[in-house]
């Protein structure tokens, strides 16, 4: 059984991939894997189209891209159908995290980008006869490579930001969910974006690797640490900037004074939505021993109430492809064999045909187990009892990942203190997973969870080169520091240095 299998042989020798619905295992369709030649052609067309797009004002780019919003609103059911067919996720998750989030991102950037990308005029602290202007110039052609867990949003979000910044985009979505990529192409066509500015490439790792080597001006990659490392190496070789949004092993810290009902609801939602296939899923819990039993009991009760299914009303969908099912099973079996207790779940769902793994809660886990060290990316919630918050923090930080984290306490100051001490790119207090969806907050991991950020002002400006333009204000015939050099000038400079950095007044005005 495979969701992505080799497709029919082609006379042209081109590879094809056949895709199945992971919930029902029904055949969806086939795609053709685009070759290095196709990639080069797409980048070339994008390069030709980019200057005309970059010449438009940012607000005008926003007006064009905003035309996607009424299309998304009008065709939301149809879009949700496509996403659900290739991922098996509940319709509510497709609607909220893909369609709603897409509308919000488009509107947000269309409104905010003109201000964020406007020239910044600064007075210079030392060279008072010059003025400085920072201009956010587009990079050129941006290659965007994305995963399958939120196939529409994770591809559309960087695409919109790169386009708003005046770049052309070549998008290579995951081979596991190519049909959402086709939706993006259709959506952007409906905005009457100039031809060539957006290009879609379908294919697998081979197509992705070809894109990294195709002479683009930036790679925005979202995916696993293993692939991210390869992409980073290739970008280093090609001297192409990249952002790498990679995996996580997000910790949850439950303090003794937490609202246990809210924390348990948050744990269940944070661990099992999208069947745990979210980079910012809660993947391990550290709960202070005073409240550990009460918290765990609530989590188990709430988990047992989750409904898995392939149609109608349900809460938890399948693993989106078999590789993920194998990883989840391996982590649970490893934990079980090393002494963990399975409180609920712990097996593939025998009642459903697709790739369903039952929402699973584990206790008695240790940091020797894969489930506490490696990204599981599935519906598994291991809970570890700890002495106090300091031990929770030490264990939370004992990881090679650092993407997101969540902390639960009624004491806001303590929550903020712990948040600042967690080694993660972002952190949420008394809630979970919000950070990618909060468009204004820069998002990206530390440690092996990534390099660079999307979203926020930093993310948008990351699709630009901040060009410094320094302009002389008065047009003197010569500058003091130009030729000729003389002993008199040296003595004067030394005096000036003593005054600027050695006196209170000098320090004040410099
Ligand atoms: P993956 O790394 O297997 O694939 C990601 C993309 O890279 C796909 O489009 C794939 O075709 C392409 N690819 C594969 N080999 C390539 C190569 N050599 N060169 C260039 N491209 C190549 O990841 P996945 O399994 O699709 O996604 C799951 C992973 O993504 C998880 O680790 C998850 O945590 C991570 N993720 C991170 C974020 C984030 O924002 N940090 C968001 C979502 C998912």
What does this structure look like?
This protein is α/β, with parallel strands linked by helices and 510 residues long. It is built from 19 helices and 19 strands. The strands form four sheets. The protein has a seven-stranded mixed beta sheet, with helices on both faces. A six-stranded mixed beta sheet has the order 8-7-6-9-10-18, with helices on both faces. β6, α6 (153-164) and β7 (168-172) form a beta-alpha-beta unit. α5 runs parallel beside α6 (153-164). The longest helix has 26 residues, at 91-116. It is globular, with a radius of gyration of 26 Å. The mean pLDDT is 96. Bound molecules: nicotinamide-adenine-dinucleotide (NAD).
Give the topology, please:
Elements: E1 4-6, E2 16-20, E3 27-32, H1 36-55, H2 58-66, H3 68-74, H4 76-87, H5 91-116, E4 120-123, E5 130-138, E6 141-145, H6 153-164, E7 168-172, H7 178-190, E8 198-200, H8 205-212, E9 218-222, H9 225-238, E10 242-245, E11 250-254, H10 260-272, E12 282-288, H11 289-304, H12 322-337, E13 341-344, E14 360-363, H13 370-373, E15 380-386, H14 389-397, E16 406-408, H15 412-421, E17 428-429, H16 434-437, E18 450-451, H17 456-461, E19 464-472, H18 487-502, H19 504-509
Parallel strand pairs: 6-7, 6-9, 7-8, 9-10, 11-12, 11-16, 12-15, 14-15, 16-17
Antiparallel strand pairs: 1-2, 2-3, 4-5, 5-19, 10-18, 13-14
Structure at a glance:
By secondary structure, this protein is an alpha/beta fold.
Keywords:
510 residues; six-stranded mixed beta sheet; globular; 43% helix; alpha/beta; seven-stranded mixed beta sheet; binds nicotinamide-adenine-dinucleotide; 18% strand; 19 helices; 19 strands
């Amino acid at each position: 059984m495979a969701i992505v299998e080799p497709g029919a042989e082609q006379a042209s020798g081109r590879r094809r991939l056949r895709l199945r619905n992971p919930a029902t295992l029904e055949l969806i369709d086939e795609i053709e894997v685009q070759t290095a030649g196709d990639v080069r052609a797409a980048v070339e067309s994008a390069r030709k189209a980019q200057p005309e797009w970059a010449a438009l004002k940012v607000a005008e780019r926003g007006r064009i891209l905003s035309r996607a919003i009424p299309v998304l609103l009008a065709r939301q059911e149809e879009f949700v159908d496509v996403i659900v067919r290739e991922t098996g996720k509940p319709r509510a998750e497709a609607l909220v995290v893909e369609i709603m989030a897409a509308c919000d991102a488009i509107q947000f950037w269309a409104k905010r980008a003109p201000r964020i990308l406007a020239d910044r005029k600064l007075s210079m602290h030392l060279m008072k006869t010059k003025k400085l202007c920072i201009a956010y110039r587009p990079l050129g052609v941006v290659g965007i490579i994305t995963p399958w867990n939120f196939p529409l949003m994770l591809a559309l979000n960087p695409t919109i930001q790169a386009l708003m910044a005046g770049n052309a985009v070549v998008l290579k979505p995951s081979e596991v969910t190519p049909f959402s990529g086709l939706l993006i192409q259709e959506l952007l066509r409906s905005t009457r974006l100039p031809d060539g500015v957006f290009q879609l490439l379908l294919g697998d790792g081979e197509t992705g690797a070809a894109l990294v080597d195709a002479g683009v001006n930036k790679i925005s990659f979202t995916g696993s640490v293993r692939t991210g490392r390869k992409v980073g190496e290739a970008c280093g070789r090609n001297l192409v900037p990249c952002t790498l949004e990679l995996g996580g092993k997000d910790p949850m810290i439950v303090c003794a004074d937490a609202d246990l009902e809210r924390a348990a609801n948050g744990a269940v939602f944070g661990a099992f939505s999208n069947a745990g296939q979210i980079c910012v899923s809660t993947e391990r819990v550290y709960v202070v021993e005073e409240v550990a039993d009460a918290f765990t009991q609530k989590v188990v009760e709430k988990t047992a109430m989750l409904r898995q299914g392939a149609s109608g009303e349900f809460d938890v969908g399948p693993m989106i492809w078999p590789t993920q099912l194998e990883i989840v099973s391996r982590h649970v079996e490893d934990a079980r064999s090393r002494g963990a207790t399975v409180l609920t779940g712990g097996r593939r769902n025998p009642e459903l045909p697709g790739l369903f793994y039952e929402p699973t809660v584990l206790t008695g886990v240790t940091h020797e187990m894969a489930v506490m060290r490696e990204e599981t990316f599935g519906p598994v919630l291991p809970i570890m009892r700890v002495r106090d918050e300091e031990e929770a923090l030490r264990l939370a930080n004992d990881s090679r990942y650092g993407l997101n984290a969540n902390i639960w306490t009624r004491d806001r100051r303590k929550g903020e203190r712990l948040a600042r001490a967690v080694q993660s790119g972002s952190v949420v207090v008394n809630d979970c997973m919000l950070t990618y969806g909060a468009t204004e907050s820069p998002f990206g991991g530390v440690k092996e969870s990534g390099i660079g950020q999307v979203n926020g002002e930093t993310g948008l400006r990351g699709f630009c080169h901040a060009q410094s333009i320094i302009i002389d204000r008065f047009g003197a015939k010569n500058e003091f520091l130009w030729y000729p050099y003389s002993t008199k000038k040296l003595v004067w400079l030394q005096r000036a240095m003593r005054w600027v950095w050695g006196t209170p007044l000098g320090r004040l005005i410099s």
